[in-house]
Amino acid sequence: MRPRTFTALAILFLVAAVVRTQQPQPEAPKKKPLAPATTASLHKLLEMSIDVPEEFKQPVPLRLVLKYFSDAVGLRGMQFPIWIDQNAFKEEGADPPDLLDTNVVFPAFLNKMPIAVALRVALSQMPGQNATYLIRVDHIEVTTYKAARVDVRLDEGIVVDFRGSSAGRVIEELSERTGVSIGTHADLEEVLKKPFSLRSNGDMSLRGVLHCLADTFGLRLVTDEHRVFLTSEDHYMERLHARLAEAKVRKELADLGEPVRYPSVGDRIYGGPLGLAGHK
């Protein structure tokens, strides 16, 4: 055997011996999958406090801010699904591809804040200061104030298939899917337990679905640009008569020359003049 061949064989035997004596490397621990996002988890997520890095006190692209939020939330076992409604911004004249490249700056002396506050601080600096967000059933939607308005959301088509679900659960699901908050009067506790069935193929709006529910149980749907509210017919008429009585007193005071403070938007009962707004 040639010396070179002998040397090569010796090296091979030595390598094989070393390989046999080495301990097997432990497998890297598998990452625990993040919990799927729900309306409840997104509310909880937005209440969590988050550290504000020093580099965020200088202009930084929005995409890096959102990535930081996502990473921080992921360390706590939660998802941070966020989506930008580009069509809404396009209608407002903004260029959707550039939105994530918008530079934002955080306050210099705040080192910690809830994610909800941090998100609003960031969105307030988008083009036109016209951005807000909605909580959907499984994600956070960034959109414009106009697109987020209650009256706009109410008239969007929706696909539903309710088969004997309780009225209360139907309202919850409609709210989760559309991002519209729907209030109910305290006296409706028993009504909300009753079954309700309805199927819509997308040709019916959220407003239409709520009117169907209201008509089924003899309720009154009250809407304006600020809220959606379901109440009993009796309670609605009671408040309407109270509003009429208030208007009569105000007129009498005005006829006597007394100063009259007219109600602001926040004082109006059920939104419009004499409480009639929203019932179509």
Quick recap:
This protein is of the alpha+beta class and 280 residues long. The chain has helices spanning 3-21, 39-47, 62-74, 86-91, 96-99, 115-123, 145-148, 150-154, 167-178, 206-216, 233-255, and strands at residues 49-51, 60-61, 82-84, 103-104, 112-114, 131-135, 140-144, 157-166, 183-184, 195-205, 219-223, 228-232.
Question: What does this protein structure show overall?
Answer:
- With 280 residues, the chain is α+β, with helices and mostly antiparallel strands.
- It folds into 2 domains: 39-148, Phage tail protein beta-alpha-beta fold (3-Layer(bab) Sandwich); 157-280, Phage tail protein beta-alpha-beta fold.
- 41% of the residues lie in helices and 20% in strands.
- The protein contains 11 helices and 12 strands.
- It has helices at 3-21, 39-47, 62-74, 86-91, 96-99, 115-123, 145-148, 150-154, 167-178, 206-216, 233-255, and strands spanning 49-51, 60-61, 82-84, 103-104, 112-114, 131-135, 140-144, 157-166, 183-184, 195-205, 219-223, 228-232.
- The strands form 5 sheets. The chain has a 3-stranded mixed sheet. The protein has a 3-stranded mixed sheet with strand order 9-12-11. A two-stranded antiparallel sheet has the order 1-5.
- α3 packs antiparallel against α6.
- The longest helix is centred in the C-terminal third of the chain and has 23 residues, at 233-255.
- It is globular, with a radius of gyration of 30 Å.
- Residues 14-19 and 265-280 have low confidence and may be disordered.
